[in-house]
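User: Structure with zinc ion, tokens only please.
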Amino acid sequence: MTAPLPTKIARLEDPAAAPGSIEILWSDGVRGVYSPRLLRDACPCATCREQRAAPSKPTLLQVLRPEEIVPLAIGGMQPVGQYAYSIEFSDGHSSGIYTLEYLRELA
Ligand SMILES: [Zn+2]
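Assistant:
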């Protein structure tokens, strides 16, 4: 069995979707829609995985971080080898390598 491959990766022009979402069409007919927030929150780099694993500290005053004020966007996607993409986000983060398998799981 061969794993499904993307046949099309494009920015989604759908007013119903989150702004800046991308669409991936897979070779087996599945269509995945990915919002910038979904991909950013699923960033597989070591730093983000550690942050997600750490228990969140309760704070009396919730202060928005600068990156939460500006709407998150996908700056670009670069192929890494044949089976992964690195995604650059508008908050400057770009160290996550998203394998096709992982992107497919998120679909
Ligand atoms: Zn990350």
